[in-house]
Amino acid sequence: MKNTVLTALMLGALPLFAQDTIVKRNNEIILGKVIEVRASDVLYNKHDNAGGAKFAIDKKQLSEINYANGTSEDYSGFEGETGALKKRSESDTRDYIVRMINEFGFQRGSDKRRLKASFEGDVMRIVVMNKKGKPVDEGELYDISTAFKFQAIDRRENNIGILNIWVNEVDDVRKTDPRKVKLLIEMRDQDAAHELRQAFVHLRQLQKESKVKIEKF
């Protein structure tokens, strides 16, 4: 009988030892189960509701996560891509924009046709790639130095985020025949879409600051 009671107590205590420990920077401790670590936040279940409602916490609020398997991750110095962007040059920011679009960008409404971006000076080329990874055409050109409005991310189902930028579309890298259009970029990760928007805003700020200021006569 004693063995039965002891076994029952041990089984009842197992969930306590299977919890992940989330430590916030204000020293608050959250016991739960980490479900997913995303670009800027962490999804988890609370310890008393495993498999229930999902909660998200910004990585910038975290100090560390100690997992039930004995491993840990340190977030005490995490700034997020947005914070790190402030230190990036124009060239680095363009490289970041290209990387994010190439990794998360898709043609609107398609889950097979990816986007491929590249820069030629201030002009960004976006090409749609078919499912075999071949370009379907020469792409479209946008003069990012003319971008003047960055709308909030349009958040859709399935973690899709759509970036909306008002900018000049041009015919070539010489910026021939500029016309104002709304550039829509569908990203298959809402956090990535947010960071991409921040990167475009940062790039425009750097472009403005780099312009030679002419002293008025």
Helix and strand topology:
Layout lengths: L1 H16 L2 E5 L4 E9 L3 E6 L8 E4 L3 E5 L5 E3 L5 H6 L4 H15 E2 L8 E6 L2 E6 L11 E4 L5 E2 L3 E2 L5 E10 L8 E9 L2 H21 L7
Antiparallel strand pairs: 1-2, 1-5, 2-3, 3-4, 5-6, 7-14, 8-9, 9-10, 10-13, 11-13, 12-13, 13-14
Describe this structure in words.
By secondary structure, the protein is α+β, with helices and mostly antiparallel strands. It has 2 domains: 2-78, SH3 type barrels; 81-210, PH-domain like, CATH 2.30.29. Helices cover 27% and strands 34% of the residues. The chain has 4 helices and 14 strands. The protein has helices at residues 2-17, 80-85, 90-104, 190-210, and strands at 20-24, 29-37, 41-46, 55-58, 62-66, 72-74, 105-106, 115-120, 123-128, 140-143, 149-150, 154-155, 161-170, 179-187. Strands 7, 8, 9, 10, 11, 12, 13 and 14 form an 8-stranded antiparallel sheet that branches. Strands 4-3-2-1-5-6 form a 6-stranded antiparallel sheet, with no helix packed on it. A hairpin with a 4-residue loop joins strand 1 and strand 2 (29-37). Helix 3 packs antiparallel against helix 4 (190-210). It is elongated, with a radius of gyration of 23 Å. The protein starts with a helix and ends in a 7-residue tail after the last helix. The model is unreliable at 4-17 (pLDDT under 50).
